[in-house]
Amino acid sequence: xxxxSLSAAFLAASLSFAxxxxxxxxxxxxxxxxxxxxxxxxxxxxxxxxxQDRANFYLGYHRDREDESDxxxxxxxxxxxLESMLNRGRISASAANAVxxxxxxxxxxxxxxxxxxxxE
Length: 120
Prior knowledge:
Layout: H1 2-19, E1 24-29, H2 46-59, H3 76-80, H4 82-88, H5 93-101, E2 105-110, E3 115-119
Antiparallel strand pairs: 1-2, 2-3
């Protein structure tokens, strides 16, 4: 009986997680400027590149034509959370490769504790 109750609780938690609506979404072009930090060093992780895009956007270093604003990553503290949020979130292997090796247009869904990144 105890196992059944735990299974039901886990199922309910899983369903609420899957049906949660994003806090907000945005689209951004990850151009070559987003692949380098302010010291000129090449960034090699998906999270670092996306974080640099948001820093470039909000600090006025570089904005691509397709970049959209978001309230969440306008905060330096929230940008610092981006890597852990991506680790708890989702990005496909092909999308991750596109971010690292190219200049894709990405869509980011921001949830309370994770993000979902897709490539258009």
